[in-house]
Amino acid sequence: MKSQEIIEGNKLVAEFMGHRVIGDVPGWDDETPVMMPIYNIETEHATGYVLDGMKYASSWDWLMPVVQKCLTITDEYERPFYDLQDALIYDTRISTVFDKTIEFIIWYNKREEV
Prior knowledge:
This protein has one domain (3-113). Helices cover 52% and strands 15% of the residues. It is built from 4 helices and 2 strands, in the order αββααα. β1 and β2 form a beta hairpin.
């Protein structure tokens, strides 16, 4: 997964988990200075994270609470639910579980819009 896809996935996950932007910090996009949003995510290391500092795609400690929410938030067991569940059972690579989590959240958000 490319860096930009991970950043977009982090944003989707953070918002799904109820985290909101609490401010901005200066940063860089390629060689251009930009203001980067900080989300109100508290860990033992910090009380706010920018999108490229989030570890949903690389840490089970970050990802598993999201997976747990995905698997318990709906009683509609459609393809995205089963794909995520299968990834946990049959393909335990964090990259696969992260991808299936993102697919689930996209499906869930579209369903909620209706």
